[in-house]
Write a structure and sequence with these properties.
alpha/beta; Rossmann fold; 7-stranded parallel sheet
Length: 431
């Protein structure tokens, strides 16, 4: 009855959200490509390629979840060398990254909308042997169709914030039966396990394995692009302030901080990586207003003149560029809410600074601050003061980086532990 109501209301919800969805489609430009996949329609090429392959279907929403999915898939492939996967994504940025990084044994598609006829069509083509959902992507029709087909459903890296738990609790009568159908729930920390239990997930299926998103241990090896940039565009000894995954307003603050610091550090260099690459022109305008010479990553191989700033206008390369930084500011934490993942910068042994809004990573952020592994600033003035202090003090930079690495150490090999549990569940469900 609950799912019937859901499917009756679904078209109404689609009509309500359609205007904003269409606006996003035209603004970002990539939503029209392969749009039929979102409705469960696939080309003959895909239908032939996917037919009869005993596929593992992994679903990841956007860039962060795609990174987790690819890492987990690699570990599953190590345990099952003939593994074939379909990776579905929701956003165009996630899809682009998945296509760029996916190995040849993985097909990348857009996720079907969770409407009963759409999901049925998708299942007929993909016909998965198991489904792995990254984080909290549990959809009623997807779960129902998988249950009908007796397909194991695994929730990987199932982090759940207190805010999300409160939201789900309001609808526990609806979501509880869905969560109880999950065959395996792999959670990052014990608190997540308790939250999933409170929402109706079966306690025996919940396992604490660590956070795959934090299972990043960079070897500090420069990528070819970063190395060439250092060799051709800047002096390798220049101190670099990097803003990672920044949101609107943060580039302006970083540019102002950068200009103020140059009086004391004249060879300071600025790298900005906007979270949404379609905002690059807007960021360039901010920099021009300050008479700063900026160059895009896509044009950085042969700069016409030595720039003051580098703008990362590509997707999926940010971890490589962390290696050249001296200080990293974590975006979406000062003028926006939620925060971005600081672990890739930490794994590159870089000191990190973030604003007060790290809600998406609240547990990690609080632990980093408590154990001297990061600096939290409240405004642009504090960002400038803390950046100045770190630029002056190499010992403090090293101490922050070392303390931060100690905080994320327990999450090492979370992907391996998750993959091992998935294989056990799959083996137990095999005929």
């Amino acid at each position: 009855m609950i799912r019937l109501i859901y499917n009756l209301l679904w078209p109404i919800g689609l009509l309500l959200f359609l205007p904003s969805y269409l606006a996003k489609m035209f603004r970002r430009g990539g939503y029209r490509k392969n749009f039929g996949q979102r409705l469960g329609f696939y080309s003959t090429e895909y239908r032939q390629r996917l037919h009869g392959k005993n596929l593992t279907w992994i679903h990841a929403v956007s860039v962060g979840e795609v990174v987790i999915a690819l890492k987990l898939a690699e570990q599953l492939r190590a345990l099952q060398p003939d593994l074939k996967c379909v990776l579905t994504t929701t956003t165009t940025t996630g899809h682009a990254l998945a296509q760029k990084r996916a190995p040849d044994w993985m097909d990348v598609l857009y996720a079907p909308l969770d409407f009963w006829p759409v999901m049925r069509r998708a299942f007929r083509v993909i016909a998965p042997q198991r489904i792995i959902l990254i984080e909290a992507e549990v959809w009623p029709n997807l779960v129902a169709e998988a249950t009908r087909r007796k397909t194991p459903i695994i929730l990987a890296n199932a982090r759940l914030s207190p805010r999300s738990e409160r939201r789900f609790r309001r609808y526990k009568i609806f979501v509880g039966p869905i969560f109880r159908r999950l065959d395996l729930v792999c959670v990052p920390i014990l608190e997540d396990a308790e939250r999933w239990k409170n929402l109706g997930a079966t306690p025996s299926q919940i396992h604490v394995v660590g956070n795959i998103k934090y299972d990043v241990f960079n070897q500090s090896i420069l990528s070819g692009a970063a190395r060439r940039f250092i060799e051709t565009a800047i002096d390798a000894t220049q101190p670099i302030l990097l803003g990672g995954s920044t949101h609107r307003g943060e580039e302006k603050i970083l540019a102002d901080v950068f200009c103020a610091l140059r009086s004391e550090f004249p060879n300071l260099f600025l790298v900005l990586a906007p979270r949404h690459v379609e905002r690059v022109k807007e960021v360039e305008s901010e920099l021009r207003q300050r008479n700063l010479r900026a160059i895009r990553r896509s044009a950085a191989e042969k700069p016409a003149q030595l720039p003051d700033c580098l703008l990362i206008d590509t997707t999926g390369e940010l971890p490589d560029w962390y290696n050249i930084a001296m200080i990293v500011f974590i975006g979406k934490s000062l003028t926006a809410h939620g925060g971005q993942n600081p672990v890739e910068a930490i794994s590159a042994r870089k000191p990190v600074i973030f604003g007060p809004h790290m809600e998406n990573f609240a547990g990690l952020a609080n632990q980093l601050i408590a154990e001297g592994g990061a600096l939290c600033v409240q405004n642009s003035q504090e960002l400038m003061e803390q950046s100045r202090r770190l630029l002056r003090n190499s010992a403090e930079r090293e101490e922050l980086a070392t303390n931060a690495l100690r905080v994320i150490q327990p999450h090492r090999e979370a992907a391996v532990r998750t993959a091992t549990l998935i294989e056990k569940i799959s083996a137990s469900r095999s005929p």
